Amino acid sequence: MGTSTGHVLAGDGTQISYRTTESPGDNSPVVVLIHGWAQSSRSWGDVLVDELSKDFRVIAIDLRGHGDSSVPPEGHLTGGDFGGDIAAVLSAEVTGEQPVFLLGWSYGGLVIGDYLKYRAEGASPAAGNLAGLILVDAITSMGRGEAGGRVGPAMRAALPAAYSDDPAVATAALQSFADALVPAQQGPLAQQFLGTSLTVPPAVRAGLFRRTASYDDLFAGFGGAVMVIHGTSDTVVDISCAQHVETLVPNALTRYWDGAGHAPFVEDPPRFAAQVREFVSATAGALR
Description:
By secondary structure, the chain is of the alpha/beta class. It contains eleven helices and eight strands. The protein starts with a strand and ends with a helix.
């Protein structure tokens, strides 16, 4: 199924871009894909988007400063900014009580927390029915001592060099980071991820880490369904982040991929799509 491109303006004038598929049926569930740090909506790959779009409407967002979205004004990389961006896209694209599922990979899990806070504060009318959350090798908080924000050795090794203004320093660090995202035999894909990282301005790469956020209460109090997918060999986000979500949401559905790294959807798109499809279909069916 083909995709089209949409744009909305955030409250600070930043243009947020996204790719979306057509809805396969009336009131079909909407799956919103939120990528990770220094990546874009292209990270998901066409195979996964095509698979999911057979049953759901898919919206893949470019976070502010990433992909085709514009670079925000200085300092506008706060939780309120990201939460407002997700709300703006949902308001533009989701109607009525369509069941909405937010799927956040890596830093995208924190952005889900940003949206939960934005929504809880009543900053804008909620669009659609937020039915479920899918956390993929994700962090859910940020700051010293935050159990949901522990990163792995590959991420620690890449920072702070990965947001240096010196191209040689940044490229070397981002190369090691890209290598940690994909299996060793997928060199061309690692180069794609590296190229995407380099299109994100250094100030944006740095700005995403210059904040704190503690969303344990929001995730624990979320009334919808939650699924956690995490590779057991992830060196970017520590597996303890997934285990922490399990403590917050005891009835969360967990899928640990034995031996997989930071991006399970890259390692086996059909398997990943099948697990997401099963979760979304079952949750949406229970709402009818």
